[in-house]
Amino acid sequence: MAFEQRIRSSFAKQGLMSTIGASLTLVQSGVVEIELKPKSAISQQHGFVHAGAVSAIADTAAGYAALTQMPAGRGVLTTEFKINLVAPAVGDVIIARGKVIKAGRTLTLAQSEVFAEKDGQRKLIALLTATLMSIEGRDGISD
C-alpha cells in the first residue's frame, strides 16, 4: 500500500485542510474519506457548515481517490467540478467519501458523496462530480 503513505504525506501538506480542521480517515484504492468537525470558524450565517468548506473536502476526497489510481511520480489537479448541495451541512461530523468512477491515463472521473452524521445516522448533504488531471513530476511529496 505505497499509495496510502503517498496520499497521507501529500494531505499533510494541505494548508487549507489543516486550517479548516479536516482529517484524512480512510485511504483505499479508488476511495478516500475526509472528515470535518463543525465549528463556528467554518460556519455560515445560519450556523451550518459553509458550502465552501463542504466543497473543499468533497473536491479533496475526489482528488485523492483519483491519485490512488495514478502511478508514483504523478500528481493530480482538479480541472472541473460540479457540486449539488442537497441539504444543510449540520451534524456532529461532515464526511466526504470520494471514489473513482473511471480512471484514465490523463483524465479521471470521480465523485464525492458528502454526509452529515448525527447520532450515528448519516444524511446525504452534497454530491460532487469532478474531472481530475494526472500531471507528471508533481507527486506532492517532495514539492
Give a written overview of the molecule:
The structure is a single chain. The protein has a single domain (2-136), classed as Thiol Ester Dehydrase, Chain A, CATH 3.10.129.10. It is 24% helix and 45% strand. The chain has helices spanning 2-12, 15-20, 51-67, and strands at residues 22-28, 31-36, 74-85, 93-103, 107-118, 121-136. Strands 1-2-4-5-6-3 form a six-stranded antiparallel β-sheet. Strand 4 and strand 5 form a beta hairpin. The longest helix is centred in the middle third of the chain and has 17 residues, at 51-67. The protein is globular and about 40 Å long. The mean pLDDT is 94.
Helix content range: 10-25%
The succession of helices and strands, N to C, reads: HHEEHEEEE
Largest beta-sheet details: 6 strands, antiparallel
Strand content: 35-45%
CATH topology: Thiol Ester Dehydrase, Chain A
- The CATH architecture assignment turns out to be Roll
CATH class: Alpha Beta
Topology (SSEs and partners):
Elements lengths: L1 H11 L2 H6 L1 E7 L2 E6 L14 H17 L6 E12 L7 E11 L3 E12 L2 E16 L7
Antiparallel strand pairs: 1-2, 2-4, 3-6, 4-5, 5-6
Task: Describe the structure concisely for a colleague.
With 143 residues, this protein is α+β, with helices and mostly antiparallel strands. The chain is 24% helix and 45% strand.
Keywords summarizing the entry:
24% helix; Thiol Ester Dehydrase, Chain A; single chain; globular; alpha+beta; 143 residues; 6 strands
